[in-house]
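Issue 218. Parser rejects a valid record. Input:
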Amino acid sequence: MPLYLEILGFMFNDKRSSWLKIFLVTHFLLTVIGAAGASTPAVYLFYNSPTLILMFWSVGYKNNLEFLRLIMLSELFTMIADIFYTVMQLYIKGHSLVYFSSAVTILQLVLRPYVVRYLLLIKDEAIERISSEDLENAEFSKSSMGVNEYEAELYDEKNPFETGRLARHSLN
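Output the parser choked on:
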């Protein structure tokens, strides 16, 4: 990891949040630069803002998979909107700011599939981690529950009326 990123405290041990921060900064910069064109409509900022908000929110809630799914859905929607926006901008006869805005939109359109691919990898790793933790917890609770039941049965054999379990079964 580069020293200047360590000094800034940008990269952390959590690989997922570091990459989300990089994606967030990149999307924000490209959205702002793309909106710098004089002919950029407000809809360009509107359809990019949910992605940015979801990324801000997702950095805070690292273990929530729902944010990753929403970011991926937002990315796919904005890819389609970027295609329409770029086609409309290229048909406008205008000055260099129109072409600059279109070029930044094309750059952002090229980067979006990589973001979605990486988010899918993060989601798969998180699902695998959660399922392995659930499996470990289930095995632990099953093994500890078996030991407790065995001890309760031994205790019941010594004095069946001391525990409520055997007494309840005898009443039924």
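Fixed in the parser; the record now loads. Confidence is low (pLDDT under 50) at residues 165-170.
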